[in-house]
Amino acid sequence: MSELLENIKDVEKNIDMAAEKGARYSEDITLIAVSKTKPIEMIQELYDIGYRDFGENYVQELASKMDALPEDIRWHMIGHLQTNKIKYIIDKVYMIHSVDSVHLAEAIGKEARKRNMTVKILLEVNVAEENTKFGFTSANLEENFKEINKIEGIEVLGLMTSAPYVENAEENRQYFVQLRSLMVDLKDKGLYNKNRFFLSMGMTCDYTVAIEEGADFVRVGTAIFGARNYV
Ligand SMILES: *Cc1c(COP(=O)(O)O)cnc(C)c1O
Hints:
The chain has one domain (about 5-225): Alanine racemase (TIM Barrel), CATH 3.20.20. Helix content is about 40%, strand content about 15%. It has helices spanning about 5-20, 40-50, 60-70, 85-90, 100-115, 140-150, 175-190, 205-210, 220-225; strands spanning about 30-35, 55, 75, 95-100, 120-125, 155-160, 200, 215-220. The chain has an eight-stranded parallel sheet with strand order 7-6-5-4-3-2-1-8. The longest helix is centred in the first third of the chain and has 19 residues, at about 5-20. The chain binds pyridoxal-5'-phosphate (PLP). Pyridoxal-5'-phosphate binds near residues 57, 79, 162 and 221.
């Protein structure tokens, strides 16, 4: 078996164990293989054994991979998105996880209406309040959520966060608990009225803890594809 397949099997095993620990069904958890900077051949290898959910951060890279790979891949946009680039990916992404401003949400809505479509989005929350990261704060999420929820052409389905890089995943448990409770608050206040919401949280360093705390999407790159080389 290739290293890639061995890696993803290990990740699947960890997901199963974490789901059990959190009293959840692993079928309810979607593993997004974060393939940024990684070649098309690796994505194809995973596709060939049945994987369909892939995550990318950069519009140009995403657009060229979309063109080269099968159409039934569900592409998750997880990186910071500039309004002038929306048009290159909007009709081909499955979900945009990284909506971090009302301005961006409005621009996505406008492009979606032009194409007569509805785009699934998550709102990114910088729960750990790191200076280097984008996203709403826990404090201003509610007012921004209200604005964004009114926009036509988009459908808000939940929240996303990237917790700090840590050696010990336990350190990030607090942030996953916080993201979940922000969503529960919106629901309790009647602001979010769909039956189901989605939490996108957990990366290589902390996805098992994120699952225990209710992650629906985990975004795992390094543990599957190996370390990234940025040039
Ligand atoms: C790169 C990236 C990931 C994957 O990170 P790993 O640590 O390699 O698993 C997940 N989420 C976001 C937003 C990313 O940018």
